[in-house]
Design goal:
The chain is of the alpha+beta class. The chain is about 45% helix and about 15% strand. The protein has four domains: about 10-65 and about 130-250, Calcium-transporting ATPase, cytoplasmic transduction domain A, CATH 2.70.150.10; about 255-320 and about 700-930, Calcium-transporting ATPase, transmembrane domain, CATH 1.20.1110; about 330-355 and about 550-690, HAD superfamily/HAD-like (Rossmann fold, 3-Layer(aba) Sandwich), CATH 3.40.50; about 360-455 and about 485-545, 3-Layer(aba) Sandwich (Calcium-transporting ATPase, cytoplasmic domain N), CATH 3.40.1110.10. Helix 5 packs antiparallel against helix 10, helix 28 (about 820-845) packs parallel to helix 33 (about 905-920) and helix 30 packs across helix 31 (about 880-885). It is elongated, with a radius of gyration of 36 Å. The two termini are about 60 Å apart. Bound molecules: adenosine-5'-triphosphate.
Length: about 950
């Protein structure tokens, strides 16, 4: 390539890291030719070499967004919680009162918790940030005169890019051509009404919003098509300049974390009140002031579940990562939770529930019926009539297949065994059908040059083209949904509209998508194609019926959803009979059960719609605006709705749904921006997998909660009981209260045990019944009756065990070793009892209702890391002299340790019994939604399916 001349715009454009391109030419005021020459490009774009060279010079087309929260801010957020403030105040107070050891241990609790929370949240944030890279953005570019799809990051100034409805504009560009191009520029200007874009230059002084000849990176094409040349990439774009305003902060807040934050505040206030009462009781019973203060502080520290926020974040982050591994990329964190309570999934048909591998199997022309054998895109198979192979290709079939292949943008590449199809699978099937019948589509396309096209859009359901056969004959061809084509055809002698419609219905009943093909000769002077040209007087050439079988995994996933109490509804643009047949194959509804069409939906008012929406599972010939109404109607019945979508017009429905699901492969950028999750394989089964993961995350949170709360309360009870009832001895002139555990010992347990045992629960595998119970009730309180009752029961058991063993051991040893030694041994035994109790209880928490045997002892290895570390620390606690000095512990015999472990194991049968009782009584641990009431409401029968317009 030639080097940029000194006055070309390229030489003036500063490198990416430089200051903004303040002196860049006023691209919007220049005509397209001038822009092309300034950026040293042409209408056919850059050559590969040029593009490579420019990429090296200008750098990739990416905007380094401002990082989310910096580490310092994140650290501050850890510290800035009511839990931690109380702990810090306690540490300072204890040290001020001369209880230095106690104060330092409290400080250690604070530091350790903050660090664990910080490290885990930092990692979680990074993991979630990385997800955005999993849904790559690409652009259609002319390179070396060839159309190709390249990653948007590789665009360079001078590239010529094609834009279509649904695309995200990949860089700042000057328009070269446009057809009804509308762009939504909210990302840049905040204006959500799409702006019209045109090629003619505008005044140099025009504001950003009025520069209608430019399209800006990061904005969205809402309709039309166009082509444009890139003038600025990366940080030189308008969006790049304001990128400091964009924060990529992974928002780690969800409804659950918010609910827990509120609960946390109440718990803190409650605990402070109880601490104050305990202080009073201590003083009243004759404790020294400093002693009483330390006891009150210890209570606060022991009872506050300071590790909880970190556990919640980690459980959510693990969920996000596992969903990504199962091909559902989360874009908004709250979706992780909402997925678990999804009650209805509304899914597209083509490609999501079906394989999107279309094969034409039936042909119909006014002269008769034909069939084509073979499946897939390899054109091997043959044409038959009445089961008999045909020798020569009849003229009517030739005309039908040729028209279907010409009014078509798909292409077949390769020969022999391996064939590849590029383009829309529906169109690919038509090309394959023509090749199977012996037509050479490439040659035919050269011979019948295409002069103009009206592209296919779901709204009008047809595509039309204008061709010239090189001998002055011109012809309009049209293909599309039979209703859309038939109403454009003239009455003709071949077959009555009724006969055609009966044929359409017959094929559709076999689950086939049916396309009608028509044509009309026009005078040689006819140069362009308008809507009117394609509106009437066409001649019907015939019908092509194609199968698109359901995906095996979708059938299984639908079954799994049904077991999980989730209703699956199919929403499709296809013919009602096709939709019903596929719906029956997928098990969405019984064979013969009626679906409902978009046209009929339009006649049902908002008051009636909810009942119809609940009572119907197959929706056919649906337009995007119906989707929005359906979501609202289902939500009005308290359903939690997941809705899939791929087109521009699906965006409102995706936003309205509780979970908007976009397609990673075939979806438009607009639909992905609107969605909460993006499926990287476009497969329905991935939604079901995400729901399963969502339920698992919630289960694990409840498990962590059911573990943390009772152990904290248990510690508090041990302390409170001692202060209230234990004797106070007069020893060598000082009043020494008897305590089952020293404050430092309680703090030790809090320091080492709670987090090391609770965190691994967030990694727990799924419950065996996770997809066999009804969806979670999103309105049920987090602190359910189950959690509260479990907390009370386990806390009492733990406190009673520790206190009982302490008293027994103290009384037994007192006569032999004297007060000091007996006390140290008895207290160490109490600590051991609590720790072993916690270990056993944690094992019981690994499943909410089932038995540990079902889960498999080794299914979660992180548990053993936690337990291993804890056992080592506990050995140090007993046998290392320094620890004995700090914590007042004593070395114990194996027998004494065994006794503590045995007592701790009492929790196994007790909680086992509770689980058994819960199961027997059918009590729900995670509150589920019950829709029996809804089921009894017999939905009004949708009217007989309206006949297709003749
Ligand atoms: P689903 O909603 O199940 O994913 P879909 O989105 O593929 O289906 P549309 O693309 O809106 O549905 O297609 C609706 C109808 O338009 C089809 O039933 C078919 O008759 C017709 N059709 C589909 N593709 C084309 C095409 N490329 N050219 C002409 N007509 C088409």
């Amino acid at each position: 390539m030639h080097d940029p001349s000194p006055d070309s715009a390229l030489s003036r454009t500063p490198p990416p890291a430089g200051p903004p391109a303040a002196q860049a030419p006023p691209w919007h005021a220049l005509p397209p030719d001038a822009v092309l020459s300034q950026v040293e490009s042409g209408p056919h774009g850059l050559a590969e070499g040029q593009a490579r060279e420019r990429l090296a010079r200008f750098g990739p087309n990416v905007i380094q967004r401002q990082k989310g929260e910096g580490p310092l801010k994140l650290l501050w957020r850890q510290v800035n919680s009511p839990f931690i403030w109380v702990l810090i105040a306690s540490a300072v107070l204890a040290i001020a009162m001369g209880k230095v050891t106690d104060g330092l241990v409290v400080a250690a609790v604070v530091v350790l918790n903050t660090l664990i929370g910080f490290v885990q949240e930092y990692r979680a944030g990074k993991a979630i940030e990385a997800l955005s890279l999993m849904v790559p953005e690409s652009a259609t570019v002319l390179r070396g005169g060839q159309k190709q799809s390249v990653p948007a990051a590789q665009l360079v100034p001078g590239d010529v890019v094609e834009l279509a409805s649904g695309d995200k504009v990949p860089a700042d560009m000057r328009l070269l051509a446009s057809r009804n191009l509308q762009v939504e520029e909210a990302a840049l200007t905040g204006e959500s009404v799409p702006a019209q874009k045109h090629v003619p230059p505008v005044e140099e002084a025009a504001e950003l919003g009025d520069r209608t000849s430019l399209v800006f990176g990061g904005t969205l094409v809402t309709s039309g098509t166009g082509s444009a040349v890139v003038v600025a990439t990366g940080h030189d774009t308008q969006l790049g300049r304001i990128s400091t305003l964009l924060s990529q902060a992974a928002d780690l807040q969800t409804p659950l974390t918010k609910a827990l934050a509120v609960i946390g505040k109440y718990i803190t206030v409650g605990i402070l009140a109880v601490s104050a009462v305990l202080l009073g009781v201590g003083l009243w019973r004759g404790y020294e002031v400093s002693e009483a203060v330390v006891v009150a502080i210890t209570l606060a520290v022991a009872a506050i579940p300071e590790g909880l926020p970190a556990i919640v974040t980690i459980a959510l982050a693990i969920g996000v990562q596992r969903m990504a591994a199962r091909r559902a990329v989360i874009r908004k964190l709250p979706a992780v939770e909402t997925l678990g309570s999804t009650t209805v999934i509304c899914s597209d048909k083509t490609g999501t529930l079906t394989r999107n591998e279309m094969t034409v199997q039936a042909l119909w022309t006014p002269a008769g019926r034909y069939s084509l054998s073979g499946v897939g895109y390899a054109p091997t198979g043959e044409l038959r009539r009445d089961g008999e192979p045909l020798g020569a290709l009849p003229d009517d079939v030739r005309e039908l297949l040729l028209a279907g292949a010409l009014c078509n943008d798909a292409a077949l590449q390769g020969r022999g065994e391996r064939w590849e199809m590029t383009g829309d699978p529906t169109e690919g099937a038509l090309v394959v059908a023509a090749e199977k019948a012996g037509l050479r589509v490439d040659e035919a396309r050269t011979k019948h040059a295409r002069l103009d096209v009206i592209p296919f859009e779901s709204e009008h359901q047809f595509m039309a083209t204008l061709h010239d056969d090189g001998q002055g004959r011109r012809r309009i061809l049209l293909k599309g949904a039979p209703e859309a084509v038939l109403c454009r055809c003239a009455p003709h002698d071949g077959a009555t509209p009724e006969a055609v419609l009966a044929e359409v219905e017959r094929l559709a009943r076999q689950g086939m998508r049916v396309l009608a093909v028509a044509g009309r000769d026009v005078p040689a002077s006819h140069a362009g194609l308008s809507e009117q040209d394609a509106a009437c007087e066409l001649r019907l050439l015939g019908l092509e019926g194609m199968i698109d079988p359901p995906r095996e995994e979708a059938i299984a996933a639908v079954r799994a959803c049904h077991e999980a109490g989730i209703v699956v509804k199919m929403i499709t643009g296809d013919h009602p009979a096709t939709a019903e047949a596929i719906g029956a194959q997928l098990g969405l509804q019984k064979e013969g059960a009626p679906g409902i069409t978009g046209a009929r939906l339009a006649t049902i008012d908002d008051a009636q719609l909810p009942e119809v929406a609940v009572g119907t599972n197959v929706f056919a010939r649906v337009a995007p605006e119906h989707k929005l109404r359906l979501v609202r109607a289902l939500q009005s019945k308290r359903h939690v709705v997941a809705m899939t979508g791929d087109g521009v017009n699906d965006a409102p429905a995706l936003k309205q749904a509780n979970i908007g699901v976009a397609m990673g492969i075939t979806g438009t950028a607009v639909s992905k921006e609107a969605a909460d999750i993006v499926l990287t394989d476009d497969n329905f089964a991935s939604i079901a997998a995400a729901v399963e993961e969502g339920r698992r995350v919630y289960d694990n949170l409840i498990k962590s909660l059911a573990f943390v709360l009772p152990t904290n309360l248990g510690l508090a009870l041990i302390l409170m009981f001692g202060v209230a009832f234990f004797p106070i001895h007069d020893l060598e002139g000082a009043r020494v209260p008897l305590m089952a555990m020293l404050p430092t010992q309680l703090l030790w347990i809090n320091l080492v045990a709670t987090v090391s045992l609770a965190l691994p629960l967030a990694f727990e595998a799924k419950e065996s019944d996770v997809m066999r119970r009804a969806p979670r009730d999103p309105d049920a309180p987090v602190l359910s009756r189950f959690v509260l009752m479990r907390t009370g029961m386990v806390a009492l058991l733990m406190a009673a065990g520790a206190i009982g063993l302490f008293l027994w051991e103290y009384q037994r040893e007192l006569p032999h070793t004297g007060h000091a030694m007996a006390l140290a041994e008895a207290q160490t035994m109490a600590v051991n009892t609590v720790i072993s109790f916690q270990i056993f209880y944690m094992l019981m928490c690994r499943t909410l209702t089932g038995s540990l045997r079902k889960v498999g002892l080794f299914s979660n290895r992180t548990i053993f890391v936690g337990v291993g570390v804890l056992v080592l620390l506990q050995l140090a606690f007993m046998y290392v002299p320094f620890m004995q000095r700090v914590f007042g512990s004593a070395p114990l015999t194996l027998e004494a340790i065994g006794l503590s472990v045995l007592l701790g194991a009492v929790v196994l049968p007790v909680v086992g019994l509770e689980k058994w009782l819960l199961q027997r009584s059918g009590t729900e641990v995670v509150k589920q939604v019950h829709r029996d009431k809804d089921k009894k409401e017999e939905p009004p029968r949708p009217g007989p399916r309206e006949r297709l317009p003749a």
